[in-house]
Structures are given as structure tokens and as C-alpha cells.
Amino acid sequence: MFDVGRVADAELVEVMTSSAAAAARAEAVTLAAIAELWRRRRCPERERWVCADWDAAAAEIGCALGMGPGRASTLMDLALALRDRFPGVGALLADGQVTMDVVKTIVSRTALVLDPATLRLLDGHFVDAVAGWGVLSQKKLEAAIDVWIETYDPDAVRRVRTRSRDRSFTIGDRSDADGVTSVYGQLAASDAALLASRLAMMIASVCEFDPRTLDQKRADSIGAIAAGATALTCRCGRPDCAAARIDDGRASAITITVIADHATLDAQPDPQLHGETPKSAYAPRNTAPTAEPAEPAAEAVAEAVGDVDNAAGELDSATAPVASPPAATQSRRAALIVGPGGGIVPAPLLAELIAHGATVRFVGATEGLATDGYRPSAALDRFVRARDLTCRFPGCDRPATHADIDHTVPYPAGATHPANTKCYCRQHHLLKTFWEGWTERQTPDGRLHLISPTGHAYTTAPLSGLLFPSWNTRTGPPPATTTQRPTPGRHLMMPTRGRSRTQNHLAYIHRERELNHHERVEIKPQQHNSDAHNAPPTGCTGDDPPPF
């Protein structure tokens, strides 16, 4: 850590600015290397492959920088924009005279500009103007950039559209706390009305003694709708309540996988999960809290029940592992690995799922999982998905529930064995199968050692080893493999798409420009009529101030 404890205030500011300039220069070098790698990896004859040349290059970049394919693809777009569209702005970045945030905003706001001559004009104006912009907020920076785009190519101005095209729905955020997941977005007005009506009906389906607040019942109703229910299970606990006997699917649609130890299921639901938040009790100072008996540790995974289609056939949906109790003095732990990013669920909520009908199954044995055929058995499938939890390609965190079970050494040369199988998302499965230069080796503890076309080595370990370190997933080694030569014409089996990524991108730009053009044509007559209506009376001079 750089010691700044004795640096004067003015010098601290100089350190910050010089470090920011150095970071900008480093970013420029990184983007230049990315653009050059893409130039060398571009393969037009494969651009319509489902895993195309762009995806293969993004995979190499993602491995090198420790990021997923989406972020790597974004950096590729940015690198090519500086190289081909705004070389002047790129030179400013390389000289440390502009920040990466400014560069990203310029590239984003000018995404609809296609004419090379216009791009050259804009690049020149941005180079001259950036020094005079000073420190601008994001909104002011976008406005400063849009002024020049409006001047030279008004159809390319990025417009905020308030119609139904703005609808979106997002599940999950990096800042989500244990046990909850945020959802946010915008629905079409008709869809929102339908949802509000359904929520009102489901809230009304429980009795007056249900302990949940209105917000809690509304949130629980969303889960019930996702499970296909039309009514909400009442949580009143009264034997004479008919709504309490309704199954809303919020628990019965969940499968909880426990690793080896049945005792991990003895947790009790927390009665304070529902209702108003209790007031915190006052504790006098210097008073030691009363020690509560420690519960035995428990690790479990819950996930929605369903079948997943993958390359190995139709298999049961995967669950995450649960380790044996490491020590009676540790607090109970539970985990929920479902959907992008996963999340941790408190043990009382896991216990409530079990109490209300969640399916429980036990996984943990590491022997006897190998099969003779190509398709893994249900037991092997559950074990591999529970062990890996995500795609095993470096930087990729797509969930194992939607991944393929891939043979590290291709079958039949390689056995269908836990030490020779792992989870790959479909994109990285296709990359490994059809793109040359990637080699991999798997060890009995589940670690995957991958070598890229440039010879760089990367190692990934199963995520379960981080979440549940007490679960030993090591298996015996697979049977000895035989040498298998690549199948001639194998590339002909790669699935293809109707349009390449470039064609899709250009189609989007042309469509957006067309909408912008029609919008400008419609607004201009309205503005003209409004100006004529508000024109001053004849004989009045526009330069005179209005009377007060």
C-alpha cells in the first residue's frame, strides 16, 4: 500500500490526478491490445456460428482479465470504437488527458453514427472540446456531446423513449442481502394492471389472522404466481382455516439437496419471519448477553424444481451442496443457489420451506457415480452440478442449473466419470468443442486446468469448495483414456444463426435512426405551429422587454 500518511494536502491531490492519468494510459494500452487480438482472431467464415469468432475472442479476453463474456464483449466494442471511429479521443486517453468515463460516454452517445466523414468531424470536435469541458456531471457531459451529434447527424442522437419500449424486468442485484432478492423494472400499463389485480385477489385469499404485513403478502404472492398458483397459502396456523390448507407452490416447487447428513434438517422456522419488524430490546451497558445454546451446523441448497435440457439429454435440475456439520459450536448455515448470481438464504427460511412441503433429497456420496454410456446418470448429474454450481470456464458465472455436462476428455476416449465431467454453459461448451487451440485437464478434486490458444494456463475450482469447505468432493481418478483424433469435418456440426452479430447490430442502428427521423419529422410541424401561435403581435419588436 502506498504510504500517503505524511503527504501534504496539495500533494495528495497531485497524487490522485497523476494516478488517474496513469490509469487512463494503462486502460488505453489494454484496449489497444484487445483491438489487435480481435484483428488477429477475426474469422469472417465463422461469424454466423452460434459460438462465433467474436465469442471466441471474448473468451480469451475474459480468461486474461478475469471477467465474464459479457464484460469482455463490452471492452471489445470500446476498443474497436477508439481504434476505428475515434482515434483522436483514443490518443487523448493514451496520453492521460481524458478519463475512461468520458471515453465510454462518447462511444455510447455516438453509437448510432454510421457515416465515416461524420465520425471524423465528431472526433476532431471532441479532441478540441474535451479540455474545455472541465469537470461535468454525467448529464451535462451527455448534453455537451449531443450538441455536436445534433449538428452533424440529428438522426443519431440517442433519445429517451417513454413508450412501451422502455419496459424491462430485472431480478437480482449485487447488493442484495441474504435471504432476499431485489426486483425492479417497468411493465406495460396493461400488464401492470393485470398484475395488480392478481396480487389483490391473492392477498384477499388469506384470512384475517395471517401474520404477514400487506407488503409481505404482496411479495409472497409473486412467488406463488411464479409457481403457478392462483391463491396464497395462509400462514395463520389455525386448523379451521381453509386457506391454510392451500398449496401455493412456494415450498413444494423447491427441492432442497442435503449432503450426507440428515441432522441438518432439524432447524425450526423463525416466527419473526412474518409481521412487523420487532423493536430491538434495550440492553444495559456492561451486561453480558445470555448465551443461547448453539445449534448444530447445517448447509443446504434450495432451488426450483424442474427439468433442464442439455447436451447430455433431459436431466433433473441441479442443486447446490450441503456439507456435513463441521462443529457443534458453529452457527447454522444454509445456502440457496438458484438463478443468476445465486444468494444465501438463512437457515430459518430454509426450515420454513421444508415445513411447508419442499422436497428433500440427499447427495454426498462420491463413489459409484461413473456410468458406462455417454449420458451421465441422474446421480452423477446431481453430483456434478452440486459440486460446480456455475459454468467452470474462467470468469463465467452462469448457473449450473442451465449448463451442459461436458466430458473433459471427449467420450468415448474419456469416461463418463465425475473426475472427467464438469459444467459448461452452452457458449463455452461450443467453444471448447469446435474452436482450435483450447486444451483442458481435470483432476479428481474437480479442479479444471485450461490452456488458451496463446498457451496461457488458467485454473478454476468448484464453487462448492468455497461455500462448503467441509464437503470433500474428491473422487477416484477416471479410467485410463485412449487417444482420440479429431473427427474430420467436425466444424460442420456447429449450429449456425440466420444473421451475424454485425448484421444484427447494424439492423438495430438503422431501425433506431429511422425512428429518430420520423420523430423529428413529426415534431417539427408541431413546433412551427406553436411558434406561429405564440408570435408577438404585428408591430412589436422582439428585442423589447415585456411590460411588467
From TrEMBL:
GO terms for molecular function: endonuclease activity. It comes from the Bacteria. InterPro entries: DUF222, HNH_nuc. Residues 379-430 form the HNH nuclease domain. Keywords: Endonuclease, Hydrolase, Nuclease. Residues 283-296, 481-490, 536-548 have a biased composition (Low complexity). Residues 265-296, 470-502, 524-548 are annotated as: Disordered. Pfam families: DUF222. The keyword Zinc-finger does not apply. The keyword Methyltransferase does not apply. Transmembrane segments: none annotated. This is HNH endonuclease. It comes from Mycolicibacterium obuense.
